[in-house]
Amino acid sequence: MTDEALIIVDLQNDYFPGGRWPLVGIEDAAGNGRLVLSHFREKDMAVVHIRHEFPADNAPFFAPGSYGAQINELVLPKEGEPVVLKHHPNAFRDTNLKTLLDEREIRKLTILGAMSHVCIDATVRAAVDFGYDVTVVHDAVATRDLEFNGTNVPANQVHSAYMAALAFAYAKVMPTAEIVHTSE
Predict the structure, then answer these.
(1) Which branch of life, at top level (predicted)?
(2) What's this model's pTM, rounded to 2 decimal places?
């Protein structure tokens, strides 16, 4: 066992086509996430799945008990891989994630999933604040178009801005090919 873990954040059905909150590029991001997941499993490294549910049935997406709140089939957990349920963007907030990682003496995290500007950003920053060495797999992360003050911001610009900010001060930001290749 190594001191490294893969954290898959919110790759849930509502983010995919036909879901309640589809993201731009989610299928490509999840496909890359699946490659990274397979690599971690082959190397017998720890994997933790994060699943978001809003605490109310009238949630805009990820409603409790819904198909949309389930983890997508591309990255389904296998037996023995913990699934952490969260109700906030930060996967560490009010969850047992830090305890799970500390019990396994994990110090290095590789993070992928959704959305770039919310849960990935919040979880990466919290992880660094807790002292973890963090890598983000940028092409295994997706987001959506945003609007601010009358300006529409395309998803690729949202994603690029957040990856640039994380790379500047918080994490190594790398593509799938480098993660799979450099960890061998």
Answers:
(1) Bacteria
(2) 0.96
Q: Which of 14, 78, 86, 133 is catalytic?
A: 86
Catalytic residue check, 3: no
Residue length, the chain?
184
Of 3.40.50.850, 3.40.50.150, 3.40.50.2000, 3.10.20.520, the CATH number of 4-182 is 3.40.50.850
pLDDT in tens, 116-126: 999 999 999 99
Asked whether the beta carbons of 68 and 120 are under 8 A apart, the reply is no
Indicate if 145 belongs to the active site.
Answer: no
Q: What is the mean pLDDT of residues 173-179?
A: 97
Alpha carbons 13 and 90: distance in angstroms, whole number: 19
Q: Where are the domains of the chain?
A: 4-182
Active site includes 43?
no
Query: What is the pLDDT at residue 56?
Result: 84
